[in-house]
Each structure stands twice: as structure tokens, then as C-alpha cells.
Design brief:
heterotrimer; B: about 325 residues; alpha/beta; six-stranded parallel sheet; 12 helices; 12 strands; elongated; C: alpha/beta; about 35% helix; about 25% strand
Chain lengths: ~350, ~325, ~250
């Protein structure tokens, strides 16, 4: 009996480790990132210089914070199309309250956070109560916020942007924490990168090592089955919508503090990029599977491609074409690697 | 196992696209720069494919060829992205940067960093008021209120009493200044209409709606040639008798002037906004010359009317006006 | 007698789904509920598992009258139901599914992953289930293996009564045999099992008591000693009706 079981254990140990490495959802994204990095680094010295790395890590960071939050939601089986425009709303609230109503920047940020969480709560409640597809519900929220951003800004300021944050009280402190830079090896790296790494680490821990993470996978994989075993499905989904809203507040505040002004159309169009980054990172569109680290790497691929094309001096008119082609290739590579990894199993 | 060759094929396809990437006027990375050469980055807030900015791009690239220097052109309407492009140019140690500041506040840090790194900056087109403050060596453009006032005068003499001013770019202070300038000299009412230049069909429908709902509007001032053409369609569709004028030229606009559909175009000669900065940076690099004496270099306003339209038309076709 | 129903009934509007059904479940014994489609089996399970509440008769737990307000209520009383769709998430690993909804804590929000993996592996092994790797997604297991994981899960979480809703209906002969073996294993661990099926050949080997349902009412509850397999089959098939049908179909 013991000889047989110990043999079985050895068998499990071997196959388990190999398989566990290969079926990780991030694998495809890692391969894609290596391919894209090698491609650009081999052709542009600036791209691989410390300065260049700081350049492309920055858009990766602001995109990455959103992509990680959106990935969590997608694993939970839902979409949030309002996340992009919400970065504009929170930024507009911050700048408007701090400049036109003289609030301290930190207080204005808090107000933005409250509004963002309220929007997330709204999205979550509607989706869980009405059982309407989240794609439709958040599309509605997206359009409403778009209108509000433009309408309220115009009503208050007569123009389509608010600015002048530099002179608001509390600006310097907030700027250092959210929009400052860190000197590493003679190059300035944006603080947003640190925020992004923190968000990714927290999200990964929640997903893989917490009870709530187990619920997220379950609710995305099969909501009915999850409910049947007592998982609080509605609460989990609402929490996920509030998480994307929180991320939108963080990114909106970072951008507002960095550029001291916000245009009313900020963030519109970004919502699909978040989803694409999450999908590159291994998230299934149908939910129940994915990875926060993968989404973060997806954002890095985006940042590298976005800035790499500029570093290579390619004609600007072809920019969008090359970006799209590159993304398609990265996603396809991801698909292939996944299929290969799953084929390895018994 | 069959998958690996496919992945390799994809990877090599990726490598091939690099080799065949179109990079006509730009130097191949790694090859020796032309003698006496330099690398200048032009970073504007115009979206790629915008007819107005294409002329600026043509001017810059023509100057590049003239002096044997490398000129790269990038454009993005999002100030955040524009700021990142400036950062990239600084990392790439450009010899000079040309930037249009539609939103000067957002670009303050990036331009400051470029100046701190010892890279000469020339601002063009928008943001003239902040140019000197940010440390640029000069500004090349058109004073927007002067141009606006000029347009207002011409519209007044054409009998316009209520004017629709169509603003096509959110947050661009320069455009707002044009409308304000026109307001000053028109002596009548001016109403602003916000549209999105990347959606021209929508521009037409918005202007049509406005003309139909407010019959007292008898003048439309467009601030962009594509918007002007869209507005012309709107006037035709709505059956309105409103007079149309525009800022900036395109082949379509010139043809419309000849056809009496557009009264006049205020030409800021944006070709010069591409050509001159490269000239100035080239001279600065080789001879430490500064131009303007602390004041901006004006490229306009010039007026294109039915009288000179035909001659200008030929030049517009070549993409230089 | 852990679980017992006396003359239980349920109607939905004007439809009388169940009437006068009496059955009992004892610890360490298997009660089979047999009947064709539409006999009322699923209504009965839903009452036993707390999804519905009965309209007539009484439900007794450990001899005392009871009424389940919700499935969670029944679960808390130790009545665990394994549905046909299994309440398993195909994309999630075996150990994650095992502890879904009852994850062992670690700190404030943490999930004791190491313990979960170990316990899942040990519990499955104790039931005699050989799942090679508890990390593999449940969707890659065979139908029989999935059922056995569900049973092992119910046993581990302290079920006293295990209700299995048609566990063998979608399985082939060999797989069904595997599941029956695990039903016996659960029974031997002291649980009371309610085994719902429409296949008397599956029910007979493992059952101690047989409840026959037909069109919402009971044809009787029989102990194994009091009924043969053939009699069971013919009662289920409605012997008289089959006779008539045979006559009808005969060629002249």
C-alpha cells in the first residue's frame, strides 16, 4: 500500500510542477512581452536605455492600474465600460472643487473618491438586481458620465476644460505623492509606476490567497453554482465594480495632479484598451479565468508598443496600424501558447 | 508541438514588418547622420491625418531636406500623450523640439524638462502667451486675437449681424481667442458652437440644426478647413443664406472660395509654422542665433479671397498652403 | 431516524405536485427514491433541501418537527444536497471547488491555501478517490470523478444526510458503478443517503429502503428484504400499463 502511494506521489510531483507552470494564464502575456521588448530593444538604443524604459513604463503604469482592476472584474464575469470616462469625472471633480470652490486638494480628492465609489456601487447594484448584462448597464453609465463631464464643465466654466490646479492649496504635497518622480540611476521614473506595482501586488494576493478571491473565480465561472454553495455573489460583484471605480479615481487623480488641468473628454475610448490588456493577460471574455499579473504585463506590452513605434521613428501616419497589428500578434501568441500548454495535460 | 513553428513564424513576421517599415524622410536608426546634421522632433497637438497639420508637417520635412537634417513628426490631441512624446524626445536627446501648445498647463513640466536638459524649444501655433515663460527660444504662429479681429471686420463689412463661431477642438485657447477677436470687431452677437473635428458628419448635422433652430444667424465662422467644408454642406442643406468664412486653407476651401460658397479664408500660412522653426533651430544649433527678439514671429493673418484664390489653389494642391 | 416525512404535500397554484408522501432516512442507510420523469422526485428533494416549503403533512429532523426557511438552513442542519449540475465550477481547481463557500481562514481575509490543498487531497484519498492532481480544473475530470468529489466534499463538511439528485443519470455503465461505490463509502461513514434515480438497476444494489413515486404520490416505501428487483422494476414501469401497451403493439 505504501509503495503504491509513494509512487503515485512522485508521479504527481513531476507532472504537477511542469503543468502548473505551463497552464498559468500569464504565460502567453510573458511570451508576448518578451517578443515585443526584443523587437524594439534590438532596433533602438534609446528604447532599452534607462531613460527610454522610464518613458514606456509610464503609460504602462496608468493603463496597468486600470487593466488590473478591469481584469478582476472580468474574472468575476462582468464588464465595466464606464471605467475610462470615470477617470475624467474624478479628475474634473478634483480640479473644479480645488480651483473654483477653493477646497484643499486632498479634500477635493476625497470628494472624487466618494463620487467614484458611488458610481461603482450604482453599477454593481443595477447589474446584480436587474440581471441585465453588465456590458449594457455600464454602457449606459458611460454615456451618462460622458454627458455629465461635458455638461457640468461647460455650465460651470463656459469652456470644456478646467485648469489652474497648481495654485490650489495642498497641491504640492498631493503632487509629490501621486504625480512626482523617483530618481533611479540618473533617470526619473514616475511615481505612478510604484502605485501600479502596488495595485498589481494587492490584486494578485486577493485573487490567489484570499477567500474573496476564491469567490471571484467562482462567481465568474458559474454564478448559479457559486450561489448554491453559499458564496455571496451579489456582494462580490458589487465589490468588484467599486474596485474598478477606485482604480479610475486613482488614475484620474494622478493625471489631474500631473497636468494640472483636465479636459472634459478625458478617458473616452480607453475602456476597450483596458479590456484588451486584460485579455492579453489571459482573462477569458466569459469570465472565471485570468490573472492580475497578466493584465499588468498586457499593459506593459501596450506601453512598449505605443512608445516603441515613436522611438523607431516610424511614420506617424502609420502609427495606429502598427499598434493594432502588434496587439493582434501579441494576443495570437498568447492564444497559441495557452493551447499548447493545455495540450500538454494528460 | 506543432504550435512552436507557428509561433516562430509569427515572431519572424514581426521582425519582417520592422525591416519593411515605411520611414521615408526619417533616417534609418544606426546609419550615419547627414553631414552637419541634427535631429529635430516636431510634436503637435494635431491628430494624424488632419489636413491643417499635414501642411505643417510638409513644411517641417521640406526644411529638413533643405538643410540635410532629420525631422520626425508626431501629433496627438491628448495633452497627456503629447507630454509623454516630449519626454521621449528628451530621452532620445533631440537637438531641438518644436511643440504646439494647445494646453500649455499640461505641457509645462515636459517643456521645462526639455529646456533644463539644454534642448532648444520653439513653440508654434498655440500657446503664444506661455511660450517665453516656459523658456522657448521663440514662438512662430499667428496672433489669434489679431487674426480674429481681422476676420470680424471683414464679416461686418459683408453684412453679418449674428455670427456662429464653430470651435472644433476642446480646450484650445487659441481658437477661443479667434472667436473673441471676431466678437470685438463684429459689433453684433457671436455664439460659440462646440464640435468634434474627428467627426465631420456630426459637424454638418450640428451646424444644420443650429441654423434651422435660429433663423437670425446670418454668418458662420469656421476655424478649420475641414470644418468649413462641413459647414458649407450644412448651409446648403438647411437652405440658409448665412455667409461663411473660415480660418486656414485647404484645396477644398480654395475651390469653395472660387465658387462663391466661402467668403474668405484667414490664412495663417501654417507651412511656415513647420518650415521656420526648423530653420531657427538649425541656425541656433550651428550659430546660436535667436529670432524675434523675445517677440513671436507672426506668420499671419493673410486673407485669401476670390481675387487671389486661383493662384493659391495651385499651391494648396501641392500641400504647401 | 435522522430525516422523515409524514404525508407531505406541495402544490404550486392549482397544480398538486406532491401529495401524501411518507419516507424515512436512517444513519448508515440508503433510501432510494424511484420514479419516472414527472413523478415528483425533484419537488421532494427541493422540500428536503430547503428550496421549497411543504404545504401539507410534516417534516421531521431527529424526530422533531422542522421547517427549512432556506437552503442554507437545511445545510446548517447537516442536510447536504448534490444537484445534477453539481455546484462545481469547471474552470476552478479541485481544491478550490472543494472549499468553495467554506474556505479555511488565515488571518483577516486570507485563505489557508496550503491547508486547503492538503485536506482536499487527504479527504479524496480517504474516500478512495484517486484524483492525480488536486490542482487540475474540475472540468477536466470525468463525470464520475466530479460526482465523487462532490460527495467527498459533502462528507467532509459534516453532512449527516446526503441527498443525491440523479447522480448516475448522465453517466455510462462503468462510471455509474464508480459513483455507486462512493455512495456506499459515504453510507459506511455513517451518513444517511437519499439516492434519487429513475433507474432501478442502479438503485437496487446499493439501497436499503425504496420509495416509489408515481404522478406526485407514493406507491409505497419498501425495505430491501420485502421487494425483489423485478418487482421494483415492474412497479416503476407501471406493469399494468406496459401490458396494455404490449397488447396494442402486437401484430395480429
Amino acid at each position: 500500500m505504501t509503495a503504491a502511494t509513494s509512487r503515485a506521489d512522485e508521479r504527481v510531483a513531476d507532472v504537477g510542477l511542469l503543468r502548473r507552470l505551463l497552464i498559468r494564464p500569464e504565460l502567453g502575456a510573458v511570451v508576448g512581452a518578451i517578443v515585443v521588448f526584443t523587437f524594439f530593444a534590438s532596433q533602438s538604443a534609446v528604447f532599452r536605455s534607462l531613460d527610454g524604459i522610464a518613458n514606456w513604463l509610464d503609460p504602462a503604469a496608468t493603463l496597468g492600474i486600470m487593466a488590473v482592476a478591469v481584469a478582476l472584474l472580468m474574472i468575476g464575469g462582468e464588464f465595466d465600460l464606464s471605467a475610462g470616462v470615470l477617470t475624467g469625472t474624478t479628475g474634473l471633480i478634483l480640479v473644479t472643487l480645488a480651483t473654483r470652490y477653493g477646497l484643499n486638494v486632498w479634500v477635493a480628492m476625497l470628494a472624487g473618491l466618494v463620487v467614484a465609489l458611488a458610481v461603482g456601487l450604482f453599477n454593481g447594484l443595477i447589474v446584480t438586481r436587474t440581471r441585465l448584462p453588465s456590458f449594457i448597464v455600464t454602457l449606459g453609465t458611460f454615456l451618462m458620465l460622458q454627458g455629465i463631464n461635458l455638461g457640468v464643465t461647460k455650465a460651470l466654466t463656459g469652456t470644456v476644460q478646467v485648469g489652474g490646479l497648481r495654485s490650489a492649496s495642498g497641491y504640492e504635497g498631493a503632487r509629490t505623492v501621486f504625480a512626482g518622480t523617483v530618481e533611479i540611476g540618473g533617470s526619473s521614473f514616475r511615481v505612478a509606476i510604484l502605485w501600479w506595482l502596488l495595485v498589481t501586488a494587492v490584486a494578485t494576493w486577493v485573487l490567489m490567497r484570499s477567500r474573496q478571491g476564491n469567490w471571484i473565480f467562482a462567481v465568474g465561472g458559474d454564478e448559479k453554482a457559486a450561489r448554491a454553495v453559499g458564496v455571496p455573489a451579489a456582494r462580490t460583484k458589487i465589490a468588484l465594480f467599486m474596485t474598478t471605480a477606485f482604480a479610475a479615481w486613482l488614475v484620474g487623480s494622478i493625471l489631474a495632479l500631473r497636468y494640472t488641468s483636465v479636459q472634459a473628454n478625458v478617458g473616452i475610448g480607453q475602456e476597450f484598451i483596458y479590456i484588451i490588456a486584460a485579455v492579453i493577460g489571459g482573462c477569458l471574455l466569459t469570465g472565471g479565468y485570468g490573472s492580475a499579473i497578466g493584465a499588468a504585463i498586457g499593459a506593459v506590452i501596450f506601453g512598449m508598443a505605443d512608445k516603441g513605434i515613436v522611438f523607431l521613428g516610424w511614420d506617424a501616419d502609420w502609427f495606429k496600424f502598427f499598434l493594432g497589428a502588434m496587439l493582434l500578434l501579441a494576443t495570437l501568441a498568447n492564444r497559441l501558447v495557452r493551447r499548447y500548454a493545455e495540450g500538454v495535460r494528460h | 508541438m506543432r504550435r512552436i513553428p507557428v509561433v516562430l513564424a509569427l515572431a519572424s513576421a514581426l521582425a519582417l514588418t520592422a525591416c519593411s517599415a515605411p520611414a521615408e524622410q526619417n533616417a534609418e536608426p544606426g546609419s550615419a547622420p547627414p553631414a552637419g546634421g541634427g535631429e529635430y522632433a516636431v510634436i503637435t497637438h494635431g491628430a494624424p491625418g488632419d489636413s491643417f497639420w499635414d501642411v505643417v508637417k510638409n513644411g517641417a520635412e521640406a526644411a529638413g531636406q533643405e538643410y540635410g537634417v532629420t525631422v520626425t513628426y508626431q501629433g496627438d490631441g491628448d495633452p497627456a500623450k503629447q507630454s509623454q512624446l516630449i519626454d521621449q524626445a528628451v530621452s532620445g536627446q533631440a537637438d531641438g523640439i518644436v511643440v504646439s501648445m494647445a494646453n500649455p498647463d499640461a505641457l509645462r513640466e515636459a517643456v521645462g524638462k526639455a529646456v533644463a536638459a539644454g534642448i532648444p524649444v520653439v513653440t508654434i501655433n498655440s500657446g503664444a502667451d506661455s511660450s517665453k515663460e516656459f523658456g522657448a527660444i521663440t514662438h512662430v504662429g499667428q496672433s489669434e486675437d489679431v487674426a480674429g479681429r481681422g476676420a470680424g471686420e471683414q464679416l461686418k463689412s459683408a453684412g453679418v449681424t449674428k455670427l456662429l463661431c464653430v470651435i472644433h477642438e476642446a480646450g484650445n485657447i487659441g481658437l477661443d481667442q479667434r472667436c473673441t477677436g471676431a466678437e470685438e470687431t463684429l459689433g453684433g452677437a457671436v455664439e460659440r458652437l462646440q464640435v468634434d473635428v474627428s467627426n465631420l458628419a456630426d459637424v454638418t448635422s450640428k451646424v444644420t440644426a443650429k441654423l434651422q433652430s435660429d433663423q437670425s444667424v446670418n454668418g458662420v465662422l469656421a476655424l478649420n478647413p475641414a470644418v468649413a467644408v462641413a459647414a458649407r454642406d450644412a448651409i446648403r442643406d438647411s437652405g440658409s443664406q448665412a455667409k461663411l468664412a473660415t480660418f486656414d486653407l485647404s484645396a477644398d476651401v480654395v475651390a469653395a472660395i472660387q465658387a462663391d460658397e466661402i467668403l474668405f479664408a484667414v490664412d495663417q500660412q501654417q507651412y511656415l509654422q513647420g518650415y521656420l522653426p526648423i530653420t531657427f533651430l538649425h541656425l541656433y544649433k550651428n550659430n546660436l542665433n535667436t529670432v524675434g527678439g523675445g517677440l513671436p514671429v507672426n506668420t499671419g493673418p493673410g486673407f485669401v479671397t476670390k481675387e487671389n484664390a486661383e493662384r493659391v489653389a495651385k499651391l494648396a494642391e501641392a500641400g504647401t498652403r | 431516524m435522522i430525516l422523515e416525512t409524514r404525508g407531505i404535500g406541495k402544490s404550486f397554484g392549482s397544480v398538486l405536485a406532491l401529495r401524501e408522501v411518507s419516507m424515512s432516512v436512517e444513519a448508515g442507510q440508503v433510501t432510494c427514491v424511484l420514479g419516472d420523469n414527472g413523478a415528483g422526485k425533484s419537488t421532494l428533494i427541493k422540500i428536503l433541501s430547503g428550496v421549497h416549503q411543504h404545504d401539507a403533512g410534516s417534516l421531521l429532523v431527529d424526530g422533531a418537527e422542522a421547517r427549512f426557511a432556506s437552503p442554507r438552513d437545511a445545510l446548517d442542519r447537516g442536510i447536504s444536497t448534490v444537484y445534477q449540475d453539481l455546484a462545481m465550477i469547471p474552470l476552478m481547481s479541485v481544491w478550490r471547488n472543494f472549499f468553495l463557500g467554506s474556505e479555511p481562514r488565515r488571518g483577516l481575509l486570507g485563505f489557508d491555501v496550503r491547508r486547503a490543498r492538503r485536506v482536499a487531497r487527504d479527504e479524496l484519498r480517504a474516500m478512495g478517490i484517486d484524483v492525480r492532481d488536486v490542482d487540475q480544473p474540475v472540468g477536466t475530470l470525468s463525470g464520475g470523478e466530479r460526482q465523487s468529489v462532490a460527495i467527498a466534499r459533502a462528507v467532509y463538511f459534516g453532512a449527516r444526510v446526503l441527498i443525491l439528485d440523479e447522480p448516475t443519470s448522465a453517466l455510462g455503465v462503468k462510471q455509474a458503478g464508480v459513483v455507486l461505490r462512493y455512495i456506499a463509502a459515504a453510507r459506511d461513514r455513517g451518513l444517511g443517503v437519499v439516492f434519487i434515480t429513475h433507474n432501478p438497476h442502479h438503485a437496487y444494489p446499493v439501497g436499503d429502503r425504496f420509495l416509489l413515486l408515481n404522478r406526485g404520490t407514493s406507491l409505497g416505501q419498501y425495505a430491501k428484504a420485502d421487494i425483489s428487483r423485478e418487482r421494483l422494476t415492474s412497479l416503476m414501469a407501471g406493469a399494468a400499463e406496459l401490458e396494455e401497451l404490449a397488447h396494442e403493439l402486437e401484430r395480429d
